[in-house]
Amino acid sequence: MGYEDKVRRVIPYTPGEQPRGKVIKLNTNECPYPPSPKVAEAIRNLKISDLRKYPDPLCSALNSAIAEHYGVNEDQVFTGVGSDDVLSMIFLTFFNGQDPVLFPNITYSFYDVWASVYGIPFRTIPLKDDLTLDPAEYMNSKNSGIVLANPNAPTGIEEELSVIRDIIEANPDSMVVVDEAYIDFGGETAIPLLKDHENLIVVRTMSKSRALAGIRAGYALGGSRAIKFLNDVKYSVNSYTMNTVALAAAKAAIEDEAYFREITEKVIRTREEAKKELKRLQFTFGDSKTNFVFARHEGARPGESASDFAARVFEGLKERGIFVRYFNKPIVNEYLRITIGTDEEMKELFKALEELIG
Ligand code: PMP
Questions:
Q1: How far is the CA of 86 from the centre of ligand 1 (A)?
Q2: How far apart (Å, rounded) are the C-alpha atoms in residues 298 and 51?
């Protein structure tokens, strides 16, 4: 076609399936519990007639609630349509150099998609055999920026904060982005490092620990200068990313600390029980600090490899209405990523796994 040689062609990110109907959904790391009742109340209290107006482009009420929650200034907060939007804006704003942006070969598979769509050079750095980070590579390579999910996805493994700090300090001329999508399930946050490190941005989401994946709300905390740069780019693309309903819901969620603690503690408890069951079924896995477990099995049938097992069990679970995540790519194709559901859902999962293992 005439226009096609002018198209920006990309290989898009593939999100997990969103099946309809009554299924057990352990494939996209959503929270198995509903959002805080305060969220429902905040949405109910909205005046429909107010929807005729544009939302606040500064997201002031939400940003100030987030700032208060973490003890930072409001001008250190940036909010977006899920952390995907926040990360996308971060790639566009801070990764404008000639050298490659660095991130691990096994990590959130959207990072290379953003780099590609924005034409940002990038280099992936292999994780070590135990799926942990190789810090020296990040400390000694020329780069235009670094992105680390901590805990990492889909491995679930957390790096110590001292490792993250060393990487930030070795790269004063690059922005280091720490994606803490899963930090609330037992990890140690890098937020205290913001005080002394202008080249750090911490990214959070309301999709997991705040049970608001459907609202699309995420945020970044950084130095006020960095946040100003980020806002300049946002206002050059779309001033009104956050809608009126999302702003109200996200604010209510961040303010309800008691409910947040209750649901994250429940998920952590279920996860630790799930680890015991997986071990009993002879799965191996890293010490997940997230709301999922990335588990590998040597194979349960004669001649079955780990990747054969993962593919077969993924399909077998699906036939039984249980959705987990399977990535058909080298190395990770030996694993199943299982989101932690309710205790009842996990019971169903283990019943099905026992059948499939035989
Ligand atoms: N970062 C990581 C590491 C994730 O796993 C996800 C979830 N897919 C996101 C960011 C994006 O989450 P959301 O856009 O829902 O905030």
A1: 10
A2: 55
CB 278 within 8 A of CB 285: yes
Q: Which atom of ligand 1 is nearest to the CA of 153?
A: 3
Phi, psi dihedral angles at 294 (to 5 degrees): -105, 100
Atom of ligand 1 nearest to the CA of 108: 3
For residue 207, give the ligand 1 atom closest to its CA. 15
Query: Which residues have any ligand 1 atom within 6 Å of their CB?
Result: 82-84, 108, 149, 153, 179, 181, 205, 207, 213, 218
| Predicted confidence (pLDDT) per residue in 273-329, tens digit | 999 999 999 999 999 999 999 999 999 999 999 999 999 999 999 999 999 999 999
- Phi/psi for 49 (5° steps) reads -65, -25
**How many CB atoms are located within 10 Å of the residue 22 CB?**
7
pTM of the predicted protein model? 0.97
- At 123 the three-state DSSP class reads strand
Pairing of strands 218-222, 200-205: antiparallel
Residue with CA nearest ligand 1 atom 12 = 83
Q: Which domains does the chain have, with CATH numbers?
A: 16-33+258-357 (3.90.1150.10), 37-255 (3.40.640.10)
